[in-house]
Model the fold of this input.
Amino acid sequence: MVLIAAATYSVSYSADQAWSDLQQVSPIAAVVVALLVAMVLDLVLPRRAQGPVSAAITVIGLLASLVAALLLIDRGHTAYYQFAVADNFAVFFDVLFAVLGILAVAVSHAYLARRNFLQAEFYVLLLAATAGQMVIAQANSLVSIFLGLELLSIALYVMSGFARQDFRSQEAAVKYLLMGGFASAFVLYGMALVYGATGTTLIPAIAKSLGPGSSTNALLLLGILLMGVGFAFKVSAAPFQMWTPDVYEGAPMPVTAFMSVGTKAAAFAMIVRVFATGLPGLSGEWAALLAFVAAASMIVGNLAAIAQSSVKRLLAYSGIAQAGYVLVGVIAGGADGQASVLFYLAAYLVMNFGAFAIMVVLAGPDGDRDRIGDLDGLVYRNPVLGVLMTVFMLSLAGFPPSVGFMGKFFLFAAGVHHGFTWLVVLAVLMSVVSVYYYFRVVIHIWTPVEAAERRLRLPAAAGLAIVAAGVLSVALGIVPAALFGLAQAGAVPVAGLGGG
Amino acid sequence: MLTAIWLLPLAGGLIVMLLPHRFAKWLGSLVGLGALGLAVYAAYAFDPAAHGYQFVERSPWIQQLGVDYFLGLDGISVWLVILNALISLIAILATPVDMRGAGRFVGLLLVMEAGMAGVFLAVNLLLFYVFWEAMLIPAYFLLWIWGEGPRPLYAALKFVLFTLSGSLLMLVGVIGEYVFTGGRTLNLPDLAAHPLDPAVQFGLFFLFAIAFAIKIPAFPMHGWLPDAYVSAPVPFLVAFAGVMGKTGAYAMLRILIPLFHHPVLWWDWNQVMPVLGVLGIIWGALMALAQRDVKRLVAYSSVSHMGFIVLGIFSLNAIGQQGAVLQMVNHGVIIPALFLLVAWIEVRTGTRDRAALFGLAPRMPVLAGVFLLVTLAALGLPGLNSFVGEFMTLLGAWGLSPGLAIAAAIGLVLAPIYMLRLFQGSMYGERSAPAGLHDLRGRELALLTPLLALMFGIGLYPYFLTRVMTSLGVPLPWS
Done:
């Protein structure tokens, strides 16, 4: 893409320009370099050393990416002929994805060994998916968004089927591939129509090309509709959520943990970037569409979660409902709406990943143990895990003083502020429903069991990641100002046209 | 200093949970005593002549939204903070040492104390909400894990879902209040200085009032109460019934009255609330008359008493509201004593059935004497504490509407019927109870002594409490 762009737009592409552009995408570059190194070393190293070495390279690459992203704060601009951008919005997501990747490595390491999976391949795919997420975050053009989306999705299709002996995992991979393919096709069709209507794929240029007649331009509206459907697939919002529970349930637990947060955050980055930045003039049109999707997600997710007996499925439906809450912030729009979306996604990272990470630790050599009954007496088998799982559930349910409460408060405040009170009231009523199923998990955790003596061993790396997520879930709720400040910095008007 | 009042029990509670069980009760009592000491010291240092909040602690919390960490103490909250600390200490002391998981139990009691103290201290709406919700979590675990009877889990879930549906609606109210007042602040004095349009007040009043009415619980939101009270373990019930219900009444006084003093659209909420209060008084009393289970009887009598508090608050005059605050303290003193006595009788006789209890007085003269005293206090005998509170409440209600005051007085007539019938039936009778019942132990009597002393003290000199409640009555321009 970069080369084509360079060839089309300009014949003289100076070394300075190349260096400057590379700096802007350095978080992605760091991940890609780590990916290549891990891939090559996998061929060279003896099998026994592959796992630890690729894990180390992955973590180093992600740390480098994290540092590179932090260095870009307030200093980013567009690059590669505006195909990429490193504004604070992009940087916020880069950081989010780097942290998610590191947590995922910490949690997966012991799991892969226990289930005897190929380790190096897993980390390479993890890096590819992370690179895809970051491309989406830094995309400033419909084309680069689609590029990132496919990079992310293809890596995840393979990861979902990573348990090659497990029929359910294979089924999940096929289901995800087919559904994801549909979604990608929708997105691509929509993008093509928007390109046809506006004559450009650059998001800021799309915003500029909108005029008074745009709201009746059938081509454009159909394009928005199709993109909206595709994005709704990716955030697993109703009525396009069907794939989520099955894929979450079938995929190996660390993959579920990774994609439950990663796909959702990346998809919201796309939605905010395309809709709020690219189509602000048509907000009335797509806000109505998304309001329906948000309401449907909250109702379907929360009601369906009640009846689940698998923790994976329960969290899948809870994730559908949570997508509905986040959409409230997207629809509200404005600086406060976007800031609340970013804040909530960061909150979702710690609490939802934390909950899944605990399920990863519970898994046995034969497979994932994700029946809700498998949590029985967790607090007596391992007090740390039991208490933290309780914290994650209460945070997801939105109890203060957890980060989940603050996130909901910011989202709902933005919603009421911008006149979507009915949606907020619905979200609140559905939150009451959600308490019921989150508390069901808590009840199982605290139910005394006979076999309580069987203590659960906690791998060091996974334990560290889980404890960190737990501490953050509470600390960010008590002192939300710092993170909210970052979210606000990330939310300032994204449409950087200068530079590059 | 105010931060210490809630932080000490919180930190202490978390430590107690981690320690071996045999230390739990003693360390917990020590923490509770420390919290009580802090609260009493705050009251001692409290300047009765000054208006507004004292010992104010204020620092930015979420700067971006203008939300402050803002604590303060005034002539109303000071008594409730002390009540909270005292009753929580008694609850900890009443915990049996050999209880299953006593360490976690005592720890959670302390965490709950911290949450309730925060509710009484917060002067920022969001901070208030955080404490309000946070106290629900320890209450849920206490009610579920240590619950008695056949369905503790059902009772606990019912309680949580009831209160939560109210408080999440209140969250919408908090956000609405924030947005409608211009989105600059959530500090209560500033909000009170910007009264909203009556129609907006009408809507917001409803959102807040539902949450508070459920917590009190006020008629007709009391559906969760009988199940929760019956299945609650007694040491928890002491704090639960004694203090947590007061948070709802306190919040009405602290938030509903000053922020929404003219909530009129389709009707005037200020005229609906006192009627609900009176209905609660009569309904609770009638239900208490019909109960055989003594614990349930006391639970319904509690609904009746809380009706007086609602009536007093919405009499909207100084004397009625002072009576309501006094009544909050009185009820917080009497109900724990009643529940403790009922529990001790159950331990000795093995039953809570009113019909199965008879002739206990000859076997347990001391217990009978104490029970009589508490009964008389509960039904409002002059000279004991409840009389003053109910009298002031009725006086205030008379100022609002004589008809309501007369209707409320029906509750005063019914209370002696169900209370004295309970006392007579269980303590006296044609036969004496079987021998071998141990009278009140010294330790148990010592636990009740502070409560009995308060019943006399407040009854004889209520002015000590009411003299600092200078901010009550309408309008309420607190600075």
In short: The CA atoms of residues 159 and 224 of chain B lie 5 Å apart. The mean pLDDT of chain B is 89. The radius of gyration of chain B is 21 Å.
